[in-house]
Amino acid sequence: MTYGGTAARCRSPLGVSMRGCALLAGLAALVSCAHAGADVSVVAWGLNDHGQCDDPPSLAAIVQVDGGFGHTVELRADGSVACRGLNSSGQCNVPPSVTDAVQVAAGHYHTLALLRSGAVRGFGRNSEGQCVPPSGMPPAVRVDAGGNFSLAIDAAGAVRCWGANGYGQCNPPSGMPPVLQASAGEMHVAALLVWGTVRVWGLEASGQNRPPQGLTDVVSVAAGDRHTVALTREGLVRCWGLNDFGQATVPPGLTGVIAVAAGWRHTVALDNDGRVVAWGHNGFGECSVPDGAAGSTRIGSGHRHSLAIACPLTRQWHQSGELAPFAFMQDPVWSLRGLAPSVSDGVITVTARGEIGDATRFLRVALDGVIVGTVFGAGSDVVHCMSTPSSAQVAVPAGILSAVTADGSVDVMLIPGANATSASCPSATLQVRLDYRRAIRDCDSNGLDDECELESGAEDMNANGSLDRCELRYGDLNLDGTVDGFDLTALLAMWGTPSPPYGDLDGDGSVGGPDLTSLLARWGLVPPQ
What is the pTM of this model? Predict the structure, then answer.
């Protein structure tokens, strides 16, 4: 519904990167752990009375998750959709026609799927017509599902809503500028306007429709039951509306946020380190983020449960054979091959069983000859030949690991202290394991390793075989290598806006490159020089 839809990151209708905002639904399925080939972990926590937090039957290639009242919907990289949890109204019965999907959204008891063609398919409860889009609706680029209503944004930035309308939630204000993103709450809608401001309509019961004065530079919004959340370009979270469980009270010191989502009485945020933070109502553990959510790339929120897609450490494992006895006449070396050519930080784990454990018995760990730390040593319990091995870890900073693994391989060497031995431990063993993260190229130069980046740095993000509007950066809409008046005219045409004088942002009487530069500057973007 997530009362705000699954939170994702980056892209405006132009295709230019905007920190934290999820706009073109076609990009929702583009880049993820699964797309990059890493293991994917779908993590759910909170109320699980209908199995909405159970592990999905398959973890393969899941690129988006969303939650409703008691169900969870998943989008896979191949465009297929799967649901689990409450199915009282058929909200988990995915129609056969739902293929080639690019985004999903879960309402109270209904589910939406946006197809690559721009068509919207709804299934589940249709008591208010929430599953049937208006006749003649233009192709959508993003959808969301609220309590008993639905919404879609078209390529021109227009919002259309259908379903329950008891509080005007399906009546977008007239004369609104183009909308970049919209979030459906229980009975209200929050919309991000093209200029980075927020417009809210629908139920006004607790101040959820009244954004704080001076709120600008917003890049993403999320609507909860009766509270609203905004994410600014600086990575700060602003909340307003009902705050009976602290759902509108942002935790102190929370910065670097790149995605937000809102549930019934709780709020979820994702920071640039992949850390998930949740606050508000926690009666069902919806704010108790599990360890498995570390390294997340996407978040979502259902009524009383929370969701994340995590990219765990990509694991490279090597285990030694038995060394019995070993006296370290030669330093043990393990050559790890097939690592990602570009990696980030990692952890070396050494598991040993032998007499390695006082101030003079220790093991130094080296990667390609670079000492990264020491395991065991003073105070260690690996002193005697024990039946249960002990483990110790050394953290490897990103700079070191990326340098030594540039060729896709690394030699892990254990260099013993003078008295390290296993002479009285005939079945002694050593094991070495390297866990590391893949380093993702910041190909859109926004300072973030976000979903705009593919591991290869390629720009065909929707895998349609061409460099099209979804992939364009910095405003060169006609791909002529320059940002000029043609690009601004094309931009305005997308929104159904005439050219001059409307595009003459600098007031010089013509529509030219400086006008588009001015427009991009309002989003904090700089065109290529």
Answer: 0.66
